[in-house]
Design a protein that fits this description.
The complex is a heterodimer of chains A (248) and B (405). Chain A has a single domain, classed as Rossmann fold (3-Layer(aba) Sandwich), CATH 3.40.50. Chain A is 32% helix and 27% strand. Chain A has 8 helices and 10 strands. In chain A, the strands form 2 sheets. Chain A has a 6-stranded mixed beta sheet with strand order 6-7-8-3-9-10. Chain A has a 4-stranded antiparallel beta sheet with strand order 2-1-4-5, covered by helices on one side. Chain B is an alpha+beta fold and 405 residues long. Chain B has 2 domains: 184 residues, no CATH class; 205 residues, no CATH class. In chain B, the strands form 2 sheets. A 6-stranded mixed beta barrel of chain B has the order 4-5-10-7-9-8. Chain B has a two-stranded antiparallel sheet with strand order 2-3. Chain B is elongated. The chains are: A alpha/beta (248), B alpha+beta (405). At the A-B interface, α2 and α3 of A face α10, α11 and α13 of B.
């Protein structure tokens, strides 16, 4: 396997709610290699959202080490964390989280607006390339409310791709989608993964996790299962198997 | 993030809620508009007042006789006949800070020309009198040194008198009778309009001082001596000099009070300045209150906007906006909102001033400084009142903001 994109070691997270202390993570360690497609499973309360926030540099661990693309995260301040998110991480959220009344193109361009180092010289062109990659090259100037749920999620994926991140974190990306669109999105993820994208997908649906190449399961703040999926399902093939009348 | 882009983002989000933005700006628009309008009209009327004050004469000094006191009974101002022609001579010879000095004699009399007659004031003065009192000749000629010497019966008519006695005719060369004395009209004065006190300055006849003094008056006492000081800055020095010269001419020793009184326009000017000063203070108060109200309106809407756009802020923070970027975005938005209001307000105010000036018949003075101040002030109001909401936005936790429903 190639280089480690991400590595966390003995990460704990304690939320202090005044009189109660909630241990959301009780010592989690795992590594992500470049090009992996990992599904993080767990029921609600298992700590997967907390883990996701820490992986996404939105929150800092109470203790433990986190190395993202060679950068030690635990010691950074708010501004450096923001820069790190901008450079190395792409987010795909459950609720799409696109800016309303803003075109698909402008939504995808958004991360490049905050790119301090101007790594990508032509923001508009890069945004068009990203949208074309997710199959929305003909929907550049549509507003989110003119797009279907699947299309909105694909805009969100394009936004996550546009800054060429080291890793894309998807938090319940299919939570708001029907089964056909879910498969479409998963097929897109699988295709992007084959093109070299490192993906971490958080979900509570076993069906969804079967399309990843590795499964990490959390329970009560600890990893209870971490195993490769030797034969992942092929979303594209499953999509073809769906009855035709369900289309449209 | 570049400022230009931030600015575009701000414009866009203002344009997204056009009605709300306009209503938010309304406070600023009304505030700035009323201030610009009132300042333009206020300065216009101040200019009008200054013009009227200047029409009384340039750097005018008026010396009136003191009041008489006989057996405990006080006479009115000027009742003491203490001013004589020799005082004029004394001032002419000794005063260094006066440009021109002239006696002034006034007689109220019936004036007859053919079948028409009119009651008016006849003022007698020397040649300098015209320049001191700021009279100009519209047609004909002014009286000469020789006219003064021989007490020539020549008269200059004010516009009002000319209109009353010679409607539609050229009065020059015509004969009139002032009291029982026949005069020849040699000129007509240019119109001066109303004085600052509201009296008609064109309802006069001017004649040589000697003529009025000896042929119409009592031949001894002057109503007053008028003089113009060399410069407006040396008004006080000129007054002191006149006082000293007249005291020695009247042989008044140390303790004795002046038997004359000195007046100048600074009193009138001071009054006008006091009025406009009060007006300016009032305007500033209105400006302050309205900008405060407008600013609170902006703060209110910005707070609503921050709450409404919590998710947007969450997204921006998650994808790499620094808190400072969010702060700048909302600050620019509120400053732009306020500035737009200010600029619209300036337009409204100037329009209102133009209309008001036309309606009230007063001049409109457009002061670029006031406009520049309005722009700077509204920008500052936007930043000041936008700071709290913007800081609230910047300090949001991205995790909570993203989950906000």
């Amino acid at each position: 396997m190639s280089a480690e994109t991400l590595s966390i070691k003995d990460v704990t997270k304690v939320f202090d709610l005044g009189d109660v202390q909630v241990h959301a993570l009780r010592g989690v360690s795992f590594n992500v290699q470049q090009g992996e497609f990992i599904a993080v499973m767990g029921s609600s309360g298992s700590g997967k959202s907390t883990l996701m926030n820490i992986l996404g540099c939105l929150d800092l661990p109470t203790s433990g080490d986190y190395l993202l693309d060679g950068v030690p995260v635990a010691t950074l301040n708010r501004n450096r964390l923001a820069d790190l998110r901008n450079e190395k991480i792409g987010f795909v959220f459950q609720g799409f989280n696109l800016l309303p009344r803003t075109t698909a193109l402008e939504n995808v361009e958004l991360p490049l607006l905050y790119d301090r180092r101007q790594r990508i010289p032509q923001p508009r062109d890069s945004a068009i390339v990203a949208l074309t990659r997710v199959g929305l090259g003909d929907r550049l100037h549509h507003h989110p409310n003119q797009l279907s749920g699947g299309q909105q999620q694909r805009v969100a994926i394009a936004r996550a791709l546009v800054n060429s991140p080291a890793i894309v974190l998807a938090d319940e990306p299919s939570g708001n989608l029907d089964s056909r669109t879910t498969l479409e999105v998963l097929a897109l993820f699988q295709q992007l993964n084959r093109e070299g994208l490192t993906l971490v997908l958080v979900t509570h649906e076993t069906d969804v996790s079967r399309y990843a190449s590795r499964l990490v399961e959390l329970r009560d703040g600890r990893i209870c299962r971490d195993e490769p999926i030797l034969v992942p399902r092929d979303a594209k093939a499953d999509l073809a198997k769906l009855p035709a009348e369900e289309h449209l | 993030m570049k400022w230009r882009k931030l600015f575009l983002v701000a414009i866009k989000s203002i344009a997204r809620n056009k009605m709300r933005s306009l209503l938010t700006m309304l406070g600023i628009i009304i505030g700035v508009g009323s201030v610009i309008c009132l300042v333009a009209l206020g300065q216009g009327s101040q200019k009008d007042i200054e013009g009227q004050v200047a029409s009384l004469g340039t750097n005018l000094l008026i010396i009136r006789p003191g009041s008489s006191q006989l057996g405990g009974v006080h006479g009115g101002a000027g009742s003491l006949g203490t001013l004589k022609l020799k005082d004029v001579t004394a001032l002419r010879n000794n005063a260094s800070l006066l440009q021109a000095v002239s006696p002034e004699i006034r007689v109220q009399s019936q004036v007859v020309a053919g079948v028409r007659n009119w009651n008016t004031s006849i003022y007698g003065g020397d040649i300098e009198y015209l320049s001191i009192r700021n009279y100009q000749i519209a047609s004909g000629r002014i009286f000469s040194a020789r006219d003064l010497l021989v007490r020539a019966k020549v008269a200059l008519l004010g516009q009002t008198v000319a209109d009353q006695l010679f409607p539609g005719e050229n009065p020059i060369g015509a004969r009139i009778r002032i009291g029982n004395v026949p005069f020849q009209v040699i000129g007509v004065l240019a119109s001066k309009g109303q004085s600052a006190m509201g009296s008609d300055q064109d309802d006069v006849i001017l004649a040589p001082s000697t003529t009025v003094l000896y042929r119409l008056g009592d031949g001894k006492t002057l109503r007053s001596i008028v003089a113009s000081a060399s410069s407006s800055e040396q008004m006080d020095e000129a007054k002191a000099e006149v006082q000293q010269i007249l005291r020695s001419a009247h042989r008044l020793s140390g303790e004795v009070e002046d038997d004359f009184r000195l007046r100048d326009q600074t009193e009138i000017n001071q009054m006008a300045t006091r009025v406009t000063g009060t007006l300016t203070l009032l305007l500033s108060a209105i400006a302050g209150v309205s900008l405060l109200v407008g600013g609170i309106g902006i703060m209110n809407i910005m707070l609503v906007s921050v709450t409404e756009r919590t998710r947007e802020i969450g997204i921006r923070l998650a994808i790499g906006a620094r808190p400072r970027d969010v702060l700048a975005q909302f600050l620019i938005e509120s400053a732009t909102l306020s500035l737009c209001g200010g600029i619209i307000g300036i337009g409204v105010g100037l329009g209102g001033a133009a209309a008001g000036g036309q309606l009230l018949g007063i001049s409109v003075v457009i002061n670029p400084l006031v406009i520049a101040l309005a722009v700077i002030f509204t920008g500052a109001v936007g930043i000041f009142f936008g700071f709290y909401p913007a800081r609230k936005a910047a300090n949001l936790n991205p995790i909570d903001a993203l989950r906000y429903e």
